[in-house]
TrEMBL record, chain A:
One of its GO terms (cellular component) is plasma membrane. The keyword Membrane applies. Keywords: Cell membrane, Membrane, Phosphate transport, Transmembrane, Transmembrane helix, Transport. The keyword Metal-binding does not apply. Residues 80-304 form the ABC transmembrane type-1 domain. Part of the binding-protein-dependent transport system for phosphate; probably responsible for the translocation of the substrate across the membrane. It is a multi-pass membrane protein. It comes from Prochlorococcus marinus CUG1433. It is found in: Cell membrane. Its main location: membrane. This is Phosphate transport system permease protein.
Automatic annotation (TrEMBL), chain B:
The chain crosses the membrane at residues 21-43, 73-99, 111-134, 140-160, 240-259, 265-287. This is Phosphate transport system permease protein PstA. One of its GO terms (molecular function) is phosphate transmembrane transporter activity. Keywords: Cell membrane, Membrane, Phosphate transport, Transmembrane, Transmembrane helix, Transport.
């Protein structure tokens, strides 16, 4: 690329054409810096808007769960707990499913046509809007799982996670719909990193007499691990910020409970629910919650990118 | 002496069988939701499709005899995504051109590429919060608060990373020989980019951009407090500065209504949204497969 540019710089040009060239280049430069401007703008705007609330409640905001616009008392612990518990538990279910599916798609268990069909099916699932998944969750998934939740409570009610009587909409439903949304992400990224593992590693393992799954577990998965990890982190970021489907099914209650069978809140569902009608110091508190969400997802995203950069091209 | 023939009862072979069936089950579980979801939407939503659906305004909830149509939401979605595209496509393609054609891999371009990835990971609702603070609450647009224009801006933030990324990657695939040939016959840099590299990367850029638009059309979170929702027909240009309905927000609002008629409207809107998004996706997939085949020849 550089060679091309020097070649071009040494050439004599008419003034107008030269100017157009410079203008073109600088326009492109300005347009590309828009990304940085928007990103910084988002961070600064959300930070300054949350300042009033930050000054009043400080870090207490993060550990109390009172949310009372009448008394002007705000704490986002319920939402933060909900965000963390829904995203981590949904990832816990998604990782084995997604990696298993990715292995199925990349290894030759069935003819290529079937693998490609399944692969594109999973990717099409990612294109379904989250609000439609929420609609489906309300009318199809919730009635379907109701009996199962009652069973879960009756047998495992002694675990705090299942300690409340299941109500219509609850956190566990949000976790399940998140699994459906995260599966395509984890699967497609795991598939890409499995595909990038060089053929010779696999052949070497087969050559010394390893069985297929011994090869997968001891050679291919470790080689693809960093890519899979990065995919999992990206999915975690997505899960924490996911709004619509979660808002529609989680029940939107600020009453704190350890149990995932009770209605809950996540930061994003709280924003979706209250932003339209909020006023006064509630707005600032919502911005504070948004700031917490943004920091959480930024940290996860940057860590994912660092992981990709650090470990890619190892083989 | 161990036989070299395949032995079914060997523990390693039994283990292999077990894990193989496990991964088959994983794949089945992964595609079951999609099959259930799509068939359910096609049946449930498809049965609600009538000509009036496309021409009428939705009736306000509570009137559970007849829900009306989704005309304003349909037009609103078209308008809001068009606004988002008008902002995001030029900015994104320009930025992508800079990254692929001009930058030399220095600190600035690395930072921008990093920023693109970070921006792609920002939760969509944060984009809504940002536009709310910047445009809705300040009433900067002729004193109006919620507006279709603000909704389009929020969606453009979500489209921007996709457009930049696809442009950058599409241009990188163009062989350098083409650029040398063009510069060699005396073309300037901008003619080379506009007349040679961009056209040869056109199809991959267009595919990415269209997928980005389809994605934005289904986004809801940034719209619920930027464009809000409207029950009324969009009649003229001035409506851009007022609340505007969209299919996605209609689904959200009417799914939570206790009335059956409104719920049915939500299913019908989902049918239209899902059908159009899936067909765009499948079309671009076929197009991609087709170009790959022709390239190899």
């Amino acid at each position: 690329m550089e060679e091309k540019l020097t070649l071009f710089k040494n050439r004599k040009r008419f003034g107008i054409e030269k100017n157009i060239d410079i203008i073109f280049k600088n326009t492109a430069l300005v347009l590309s810096s828009f990304v940085a401007i928007i990103l910084l703008g988002i961070i600064l705007v959300v930070f300054f808007q949350s300042f009033e609330s930050f000054a009043r409640y400080g870090l207490k905001f993060l550990v109390t769960s009172e949310w009372n616009p009448v008394k002007d008392e705000y704490g986002a612990f319920t939402a933060i707990y909900g965000t963390l518990v829904t995203s981590f538990l949904s990832l816990l279910i998604t990782i084995p499913l997604g990696v298993g599916t990715a292995i199925f798609i990349t290894e030759d268990f069935v003819p290529k046509v079937f693998r490609e069909i399944i692969g594109s099916f999973v990717e099409l699932l990612a294109a379904i809007p989250s609000v439609v998944l929420g609609l489906w969750a309300i009318f199809v998934m919730e009635p379907f799982f109701r009996a199962f939740f009652v069973f879960l409570h009756n047998f495992f009610g002694w675990i705090p996670l299942f300690s409340t009587e299941p109500t219509g909409r609850n956190s566990l439903l949000a976790i399940l719909i998140l699994v459906v949304m995260l599966l395509p992400i984890v699967t497609s990224i795991a598939r890409d990193s499995l595909n990038q593992v060089p053929k010779k590693l696999r052949n070497a393992a087969y050559g010394i007499g390893a069985s297929r799954w011994k090869t997968i577990f001891s050679v291919i998965l470790p080689a693809a691990l960093s890519g899979i990890m990065a995919g999992v982190l990206l999915a975690l970021g997505r899960a924490m910020g996911e709004t619509m489907a979660v808002t529609m099914i989680i029940g939107n209650s600020n009453a704190f409970s350890w149990s995932i069978l009770s209605p809950g809140y996540t930061i994003s569902s709280m924003l979706a629910n209250q932003f339209g009608e909020a006023d006064g110091s509630q707005v600032s508190s919502l911005f504070y919650a948004a700031f917490v969400l943004m920091i959480l997802s930024l940290v996860v995203n940057i860590f994912a990118q660092w992981l990709v950069k650090k470990f890619s091209l190892k083989y | 002496m161990n036989s070299l023939y395949y032995q079914k009862r060997l523990s390693r072979n039994i283990g292999d069988k077990f894990f193989t069936s496990l991964s088959v089950i994983c794949a089945l579980i992964a595609i079951l939701p999609l099959i259930f979801l799509v068939t359910y939407i096609l049946i449930k939503g498809g049965s609600q499709i009538t000509p009036e659906l496309f021409t009428l305004e939705p009736n306000p909830p509570g009137d559970d005899l007849d829900a009306g149509g989704i005309n304003p939401a349909l037009i609103g979605t078209l308008i809001i995504t068009t606004i988002a595209s008008i902002i995001a496509i030029p900015v994104g393609i320009g930025g992508g051109i800079y990254l692929a054609e001009y930058s030399k891999g220095g600190a600035f371009s690395r930072f921008i590429r990093f920023g693109v990835n970070v921006l792609a990971g920002v939760p969509s609702i944060i984009a809504g919060v940002f536009i709310y603070a910047l445009i809705v609450s300040t009433k900067i647009l002729f004193g109006s608060m919620y507006s279709g224009l603000a909704g389009g801006m929020a969606l453009s933030i979500l489209m921007l990373p996709t457009v930049i990324k696809t442009t950058d990657e599409g241009l990188k695939l163009v062989p350098n020989e083409l650029r040398y040939a063009s510069l060699g016959v005396g073309a300037s840099m901008y003619t080379t980019i506009l007349k040679v590299t961009l056209p040869s990367a056109f199809r991959s850029i267009a595919t990415g951009v269209v997928l980005g638009i389809a994605r934005a059309a289904g986004e809801t979170a940034p719209l619920i407090f930027t464009a809000l929702f409207s029950y009324y027909y969009i009649t003229g240009f001035g409506d851009l500065f007022y609340e505007m309905g969209s299919l996605a927000v209609l689904i959200y609002n009417f799914a939570l209504e206790p009335y059956d008629a409104q719920n049915k409207l939500a299913w019908a809107a989902s049918f239209i949204l899902v059908l159009s998004i899936l067909s765009v996706n499948i079309f671009s997939r076929i197009l991609g497969a087709f170009t790959e085949k022709t390239k190899r020849v």
